[in-house]
Amino acid sequence: MTAVPAQSTRWMKYFMDIYGQAKPPVLGSFAVKEIEDKAREVMKDHLPAYMYTFGSAGTCSTDAANRRAFNRWKIVPAMLKDCTKRNVETTILGEKFHAPLFIAPVGVQGILHADGELATARAAAACGIPYIMSSASSRSIEDIAKANGPNGQRWYQLYWPVTDEITISLLNRAKTAGFTALVITLDTMLLGWRPHDLDTAYIPFYYGVGIQVGLSDPVFMKRSGYEPVHETTKFPFEPEKVRNAALNAGDADAQKAMKLGKAWLGETNSGTFRSWDDLQFIKDHWDGPIILKGIQRVSDAEKAIEMGIHGIIVSNHGGRQVDGAIGSLDALSKVMRSPKVLAAQTKGDLTVLFDSGIRTGSDVIKAMAMGAQGVLIARPYMYGLSIAGQAGVEQILMQTVADMHITMGLCGYSDVNDLIGKRDELLEPVDD
């Protein structure tokens, strides 16, 4: 799939090309459920990798709650509106974007495809969609920035290390590599209870995969007694081979990978919980917008305003951290009823973004009508990555915005920015 023009008309062009093409889409379908099923089939010989990426905490009830929340809110279209010309461009935190859609930070992409995060970063740039890089990536900060290119828009997501010097090093590297905003994930100070991973002891980090940000960091590697490296992880990832090589064959490289994996996990998912006061350290060492990801309570959103934080992402990590939790769209509904949040958003003091459960363009519209200024997409593009690499990610991004572009007009809106906060006129709650 090739890049399309930078103007907003790219999405309509993509829609028209779909109807005019003589061959099926690269993913075989535009239906997200069929794409999901195909991704599982592609990964059938590596099911633990599939489950690690797409599974959720406990009984997966929070993941299900995310989708139920979307299903409870129905769109009420308005007729006879002039929506012939439609705009989906927006400005968030002072930066102009072609659409209010972001690549969510998903780690360890190298267990699903040989190109891993590089394919996703290239796809994001080709489609004009901003890329948020995970600290748990299977490629280095610098290599991903290079793949995203000079015109790519990118933010860096931080799993906050225990060691201050390592944190400062990561922030400096991200800034140097052209990442313009910092996303701090608050809900993963330690990994959630995920039975599917525990049953198979599938933790890639312990075997040196998903720690490439650490392996390429001079401060972390010096503390561990090594020189930094920018490596490409092997695909498919087979942890039992690494474990057997390290324990039974005495393979020095495998032993090193496991040693460093344990050390990096101890830095970034150590179980060390941070406080609101600790945010000052990040503010002192990051010159740019700071966004807090994982907000679910109104009181936390209001505290972020008090702390002078630039933005929040209402997210429950796609249901991967806490079983039995509230659906993220339900959380957004509560947050956006706060007079303090609304006032800060209106003044431009707080940007509100949304994550968890997005599958279609209609979902994007619902989240924005609820009050989000932009939306993160995760699982769908990872389905596309596992099936067809960069081209698969491109299809997911293009079809999601094309869907939003079309549906927005059919609902009576010609500018995506006019959707924000229009819950009472655009959405109607129904019984679950």
Report what the structure shows:
The protein has 432 residues and is an alpha/beta fold. Helices cover 45% and strands 10% of the residues. The chain contains 19 helices and 12 strands. An 8-stranded parallel β-sheet has the order 4-11-10-9-8-7-6-5. Helix 17 links the parallel strand 10 and strand 11. The longest helix has 32 residues. It is globular, with a radius of gyration of 21 Å. It starts with 9 loop residues before the first helix and ends with a strand.
Q: Report the strand count.
A: 12
**Helix percentage range:** 40-55%
Major sheet details: 8 strands, parallel
Low-confidence sequence ranges: 1-7
Average pLDDT rating = 93
- State the assembly state of the protein chains: single chain
Strand order of the largest sheet: 4-11-10-9-8-7-6-5
Protein structure class: alpha/beta
Per DSSP, the total helix count is 19
Distance between the termini: 39 Å
Question: How big is the Rg?
Answer: 21 Å
What share of residues are in beta strands? 5-15%
Query: Based on CA inertia axes, which overall geometry fits?
Result: globular
What's the layout of helices and strands?
Elements: H1 10-20, H2 32-42, H3 47-54, H4 61-72, E1 73-75, E2 90-92, E3 95-97, E4 101-103, H5 116-127, E5 131-133, H6 141-148, E6 154-158, H7 164-176, E7 182-185, H8 195-200, H9 212-215, H10 218-224, H11 239-247, H12 252-268, H13 279-285, E8 290-295, H14 298-306, E9 311-314, H15 328-335, H16 339-347, E10 351-354, H17 361-369, E11 374-377, H18 379-410, H19 423-426, E12 427-429
Parallel strand pairs: 4-11, 5-6, 6-7, 7-8, 8-9, 9-10, 10-11
Antiparallel strand pairs: 1-12, 2-3
Helix pairs in contact: 1-18, 2-18, 5-6, 5-18, 11-12, 17-18
